[in-house]
Amino acid sequence: MNAPDLILYNGKITTLDTTQPQVSAMAMTGGRITAIGGEELLTTATEKTNRIDLKGRRVIPGLNDSHMHVIRGGLSYNLELRWDGVPSLADGLRMLKEQAQRTPPGQWVRVIGGWSEFQFAERRMPTLDEINAVSPDTPVFVLHLYCRGMLNRAALRACGYTKDTPNPPAGEIQRDKNGDPTGLLIARPNAGILYATVGKQPKLPPEHQMNSSRHFMRELNRLGLTSLVDAGGGSQIYPDDYQIIEELHRRGEMTVRMAYNIFTQKPQEEKEDFLRCMKLTAPGRGDDFYRCNGAGEMLVYSAADFEDFLEPRPDLPSNLEKDLKEVVSLLAASKWPFRIHATYDESISRMLNVFEEVNREIPFEGTQWFFDHCETISDRSLERVKALGGGIAIQNRMAFQGEYFLDRYGREAAERTPPVRKMLDLGIPVGAGTDATRVASYNPWVSLYWLVAGKTVGGAPLYSEANRLSREEALRLYTRGSSWFSGESGKKGAIAVGQLADVTALTDDYFTVEEEKIKGIESVLTIVDGKVVYGAGEFGNLDPTPLPVLPEWSPVKVYGGYGAPLDMRKAVRHGVPVPQHRHTAECHAHGCHHAAHQLLAGCKAGAPRYADFWGLGCDCFAF
Q: Where is the Amidohydrolase domain (predicted)?
């Protein structure tokens, strides 16, 4: 047996391996786990073995998101100002104003999803007047999930939206009494107008896109992610939009493992799209860091039921069955795994009719397939999924839209959105994720909190105990569960001999920290393929060489990613003033007390990052 490359010891290591559920040490060699146990593993070390004292930290298998849009998101990550985790709308507007002042002519300030107004102390959306006031000259686009988009006047001019611009087939340009666009774009019946508006904005040059993608992966490492399944995405073209991540793979600069799916490209040409892609790649082609996973999440445009709970459920067209059968028959005959986006049971039941028909003609046996989302799937549909051997990848979209669902459908309907416990009871494979970056934040701890606490990011309770998971159950879905969806069961998801050496040590003990603090957990040490890709706190000396942020004016350089305004040290370092707040009689009405409480709670949750900040002399925060 070769001497280990790395030994971690003196930890509380949760393995998710039933034969040894918890150990204190583990060894890694050649990117694989070679031993688990106690401190006796240190006796196998040689002078070439690296040793890391975990100092009692909780260690878990690296997290694995079964549904993200990282390849697309990485191309623009450095351009985006993140409101994910921001506790106050006033703070978000302050960030927007500051970023507008440093953004050069010809570029935009963009807030691209991942937030909900219910996370704010004010519990409301920004107004167009507020956005125009903080950025009168620099174009601004604020995307709110896939429901709405807000353009300031400068962005309306840049897009060319005028009184004479007709509404597109897939959206509404809101107009004032004179017929002029106000700046509000409404996704009705789907998000086509929002996709189109994102597409009008400037893109980064290739070298900056590579830098941006690396920073996004590092941000995921900071939160303990080591693997994901990329679900394709609207306006994401294969192979053109995959060139950046493929180059990073060739360079050996990926720090998150990815299995990618291929999204259909053009309405009414879906079969031709997949036939073309089948000549370029195949499921399994690649390696443990980057490889093809199959087709989806959209297979045909006629089967797209967008999850906008501010709007009524869409009635999908009558050609759904014909279009879907043509594509699924091709995939089944070619043994291509596939996934399909589906929100409502009304859509799911029609899709299942097609799948059952195809299965009778071309048996699915050996072809992995699954649904994504399934917020309102019925028990009958679950039984049909089980009978066909399918799986379900769930995401915490309800954490961001739960209040809308409650208003439209009521508490009883919301109780099973989705019915996770029933899925598990039936033995259906289930993987957890986020659907980031637009309709939810990429932070896996927000998703784990949602599974455990059953609440939205705004604190609204959605589920009774019957449809909530224990902490271990939720973690299993985010590790072992998700591995099924990339065909890697037994290769990743547990800390067990022979599995990939991907683990993370946490700021707080996930199993004992109070429930509300789950969403504030981060990594202090993330290891992928047996190598340290992120280190903080007592492991900061192990952190890889810092990567410059490109372009120089990037919001990421100043604010970072999730929970950006909490990183006051980074803001101060880059010349952003720390606002001094003066209390007035209006404070209570504007949510000052609540906002301060929210920020202090967030700072406490992120204490390892900000423990040395308090010497700046600011004793009150403005919002």
A: 52-534
